[in-house]
Structures are given as structure tokens and as C-alpha cells.
Amino acid sequence: MLQAEQVHKHFGKLEVLKGIDLRVERGQVCCLLGPSGSGKSTFLRCINHLEQVTAGRLSVDGELVGYRQVGDKLYELREKETAAKRAEIGMVFQRFNLFPHMTALGNIIEAPTRVRRVPRDQAVARARALLDRVGLADKVDAYPAQLSGGQQQRVAIARALAMDPKLMLFDEPTSALDPELIDEVLEVMRGLARDGMTMVVVTHEMNFARDVADTVVFMDGGVVVESGPPEQVIRNPQHQRTKSFLRKVL
Amino acid sequence: MTSPAPLVAVPVRHWGRWVSGVLVLAGTAFVVNAFAHADVHWSTTRHYFTAHAIVQGAGRTLLISVLSQALGIALGVVVAVMRQSGNPVTGAVGWVYIWFFRGTPVLLQLFLWYNLGIAFPTILGHRTVDVMTPFLAALLGLGINEGAYMAEIVRAGIAAVDEGQTEAAQALGMPRTLVMRRVVLPQAMRVIIPPTGNEFINMLKTSSLAFAIQYQELLRVATGIYTSNLQVWELLFTVALWYLLLTSVFSIGQYYLERRFARGASRELPATPFQRLRANLTKAPRL
Hints:
The structure holds 2 protein chains of 2 kinds. By secondary structure, chain A is α/β, with parallel strands linked by helices. In chain A, strands 8-9-10-3-11-12 form a 6-stranded mixed β-sheet, with helices on both faces. Helices cover 37% and strands 27% of the residues of chain A. At the A-B interface, helix 2, strand 8, helix 3 and helix 5 of A face helix 8 and helix 9 of B.
């Protein structure tokens, strides 16, 4: 589903990603761990082209992100084509980024009705079902400012799901939440993983990574230090850098 | 356990407020007295307030202000979006537009439009002097000038919207125009409306400059009347009252518009003055 080969990313002179190799198969959950500044979020943002890769290849479902290849020449995608590809990838942000001027329902039906042109009543029915799934059936008409952080994040997950994405990206989805609100969000994510959603999750929640991930990737300084199944990387890390990081967070 | 008896204390006395209040009243009385005894026929002021020509002039002032402001808002949004589109051509065009129309006096621009025939003798086969009526010249002059100011206001509003909003909308697959229209601009409105209300109230008054290119707005009508009957003060007061009436009405409208766009920004909106009044009338008095 997701394939990265030697992905590099520079911001001016600053090299944030120094050659990332990664594979995520359909239906798998991949957790990216690592200290802040290690390039996890940047890599995640490259996957749906919110950041442009400077070198290397990144493809989702066999198609290059942001480019079209004809022969051995690359053509930059037009804005509309990039938008169409993004519509197939859901993203959940650390700061939720719900649209504050729309209700929970409005947030969820916005993209289906405007981008996919789904009839409104159909989109509303789907949105209600999704809100029910994330445990917020009674918050249909609430504005984001009237919801707690955990509730906002669950609406944000429902909003991303409304586009029927084939891949879900989570950028530290629980880092901005009070400790007692974290579980309600993780529970929704666990449910998604159980239902077979392909997910790439940047997180500091070690228990979640251990229980849910098929692959754990530890990044530091813009490179993948080690990766593998969670019991290997979290229980029995090989690299000194991974060991010292895990000692601090576990 | 019973709660303790409420505190009884002597409130702070604000002597300064009493003294300043008396001074303000005295000053007001002095000015009012001066005007009451001046050689001004207030009945004339009152008479012309509802005179057909003056009401018509006020109507034209309102019309040109509303249309010019609408043109200004439309141009402002377009130019603001042009300037931050990333397209160097539209960006440069927007910059030059603001540079010229914000950098020259609006009165001069009115004269330029009114005399457009000097540069373009004909427009689409018609003589420019016939097409460029005082009304059209005033509309273009005031509206296009206003667009330059509105562009900066809209740009500030767009910049005030959190970048995460654009990212979230893009991540949902929304193309840039849709992101702007559905996500960014509605949120920018909250920042844009207060200064825009200000701009419109300014426009109501600035439209009086159209007097210089023969547009028969409120002030022009009044000067026309007082050059023949010489009741200068009387008519200037009539005009002042009309402007105050117009600006007051739109200040109230602005208040309700701002509330409308504050949706989602705070958990609960404060009550309007009318809602408070109604609540105070129906509620039992608090002791």
C-alpha cells in the first residue's frame, strides 16, 4: 500500500529526511516512533503531499505521490490531481484542525458533498453512522468549541473516514489531549485497526504501538534506526539510540 | 452549618465621577445655549430634513455608498486572493493595483474617471463623455479606491486563519479554490467584518466627494439649496443629521453581522442589548 525508497526532504539547507525506506502492506498498522525533530511528522506529511519530497520515491497503492511517470520522465501533478489523490488518504492532526465554523455534522459532510458530490441526505446518514461509531451520536449539532479535546479528535477521525480512505495517517493524535481523554481516542483507533484499515501512526503511546502495530519504525535524525515487529523493536531493541529513547518513554 | 451573614461594607465613593459629570453637563449647556441663541432657524433645518430633494440626495448617497462598498469588497477579495495565490503574474497585478489606488487621493481618482474621455475618447463605439456619467464615475472612483483598502483588510483576515485549517481541508482532497471559499474565507470574515463596517461608515461620508464631479448626492443637493436661499448653517445641520442617521443605522447592523460570524468562535454568544433589556423587564429585580 505504501512504499518509500530513499525518501529525502530538505527545508532549504536543513535536511530533515535523509533516506527513508519503508513498506506498509494493505491492512497493516505501522507506528512511527522517535524523539521530536526526528522527521516522523515530516515523513507523514510527505505521504499525502502536504510536503514535497526532494529526492527518492514515495508511492501509495502503486502510484507515485505528487508526480506522474511517463517513460523515465517525471511530471508534476496538477493541483486538482493532487487533491483527488489526497481525497483517498485520510489524515488526523495533533491539533484536530476541525473547522470551527461548522458543526460536527457539517465538518464530516463537507468533503463528501463538495469534493465527491455525494447527495446531501446520503452524506448526512453516513456522517451520523460515523459519529455513532466514534461514540458521539449525541454531538451531531455541536460546534468544535463545545466539545472536549478527545471528542474533537474523534470527530476529526470520523471526518477523515467519511471519504472512505484506503490509508489513514495519524500525526500524534493524542499528544494534545489531557491524559484521561487519550484512551477514548486510542479506542477508536484500535477499532479501525481491527476492521482492517491501513494506518500509519506517529505516536508516543508505547502501549498502543505494542498492542496494535504490525510494524514499529524507530526514527532519529532523519533516518530509520530500526524497524520490525513491536515485540522485537520495543521489547528487544538492538541499537543504543533506540534503547535510550525507550528507557525514557516506557 | 449555616452560611455566614453577608458582608456589609461602605462602597468606594467615586467623587471624581460626580465632579467630571458636572463639568461635562456645564460644557454641554454652554454649547447648546450658544446654538439656541445663534441666528439659526432650526425650523428650516427641520423643514429641509424631510424635503423631497434632500431625501432624494440622501437616497443617492446611500445608493452610491452601498454599490461602491460592494464593488470594493468584491475587488478586495479578488485582489487579496490574487496576491497570495503563488502566481507571480496575479501577485504583481494585485501589488500594482494597491500601490496606485491606495497611493493617490480618492478625489483625484474621481476626477480621472470623470475625465476618462481624454485617454479613451470612445468606449465600445460610444462617446466616453456620454457613458461616463457622474454616477458611473463616482461608482468606479469610490469602489476601485475602496477595493485597494479592502484587499489589505481581507489579506489580514486570511493571514489570521490558522494554517492547520488549510492543511486539514487539503488533506480531505479539497482543491485550493474550495479551501478558500468554504474554509478560509468564512473564518477570515470574523476578522474582516469589524474593519469593513468601519470602511462602510467612512464610505457614507467619503461619498460626499462625488459632489466635485456633479453627482447629486446629499451634500451637493444641500449646497445647491443654500446657494440660492443663503441658509447655510440650517442646511449643513440638516445634512449632518442625515449622515448621523445613516451611520447610526449601519453601526447597529454591523453589530448583528459581527455576531453572526462569531459562530463557533466562542461557546456562547453574549446577549444583544435588546435581549438584555427583555430579560431585565421580565426577570424579578435582583436585590
